């Protein structure tokens, strides 16, 4: 009986240590991930919509999903579409008129000749970078497909706001008017913020970080006109 009790005691101690290890790992993982809030503004303080915020990490998007870049009222919708490398995109035309979509961008030059409705075949984007879209009939139409690779991403709303849940401390920021090539990205680093601890359970609780304001120096619109879209290239970057 004593021998059996000794075995049970050892098992109990081992289970206690194992439980503590699991708890520590879970707590560490929780504390390492935070929801980061960003507000993106231009050099005079105006909010920037359709900017892409990204960080290294495993994307949550399933590349088997086929997102849509539509054409509504002779505009691309959405204006900026983020996809993952190797993901395909559908290009339906919801207008009553025909469009002729094309891109000269290096990551994926292509064209879809005059069409309307759902007749277009999905196009696969197998290189990271920015693809600038135009219409051969309607010069005012301009859209962008941001092709991410091993990144988690968010697109800013009309108020320039975006959120990312990540462990990263380094982030990249893209907007079409950052450069004439439409492909330049800016990199910024932020210190990790501490998490709060629950005194009763000793567990770690995530909290939303304070709002981080990022200023991007945009070019004037006449320097990023539609005619320059054929010069779009793979991503380039600079640190600030």
From TrEMBL:
Xref: CDD domains: MauL (cd04221)
Protein origin, superkingdom: Bacteria
Sections of the chain in a coiled coil: none
Keywords attached to this entry: Signal
InterPro entries named in the record: Cupredoxin, MauL
Signal sequence extent: 1-29
Name recorded for this polypeptide: Protein containing plastocyanin/azurin family domain
Source organism (scientific name): Paraglaciecola mesophila KMM 241
Upper classification of the organism: Bacteria, Pseudomonadati, Pseudomonadota, Gammaproteobacteria, Alteromonadales
């Amino acid at each position: 009986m004593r021998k059996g009790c000794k075995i049970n005691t050892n098992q109990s101690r081992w289970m206690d240590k194992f439980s503590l290890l699991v708890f520590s790992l879970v707590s560490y993982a929780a504390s390492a991930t935070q929801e980061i809030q960003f507000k993106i503004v231009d050099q005079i303080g105006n909010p920037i919509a359709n900017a892409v915020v990204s960080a290294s990490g495993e994307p949550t998007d399933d590349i088997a999903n086929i997102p849509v870049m539509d054409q509504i009222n002779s505009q691309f919708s959405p204006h900026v579409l983020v996809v993952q490398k190797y993901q395909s995109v559908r290009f339906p035309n919801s207008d009553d008129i025909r469009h002729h979509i094309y891109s000269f961008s290096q990551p994926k030059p292509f064209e879809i000749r005059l069409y309307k409705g759902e007749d277009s075949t999905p196009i696969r984007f197998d290189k990271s970078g920015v693809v600038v879209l135009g219409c051969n009939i309607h010069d005012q139409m301009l859209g962008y497909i941001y092709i991410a690779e091993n990144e988690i991403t968010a697109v800013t709303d009309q108020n320039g706001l975006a959120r990312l849940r990540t462990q990263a401390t380094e982030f990249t920021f893209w907007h079409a008017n950052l450069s004439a090539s439409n492909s330049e990205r800016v990199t910024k680093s932020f210190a990790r913020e501490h998490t709060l601890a629950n005194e009763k359970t000793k567990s770690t609780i995530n909290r939303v970080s304070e709002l981080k304001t990022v200023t991007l120096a945009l070019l004037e619109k006449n320097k990023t006109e539609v005619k320059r879209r054929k010069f779009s290239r793979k991503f380039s970057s600079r640190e600030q």
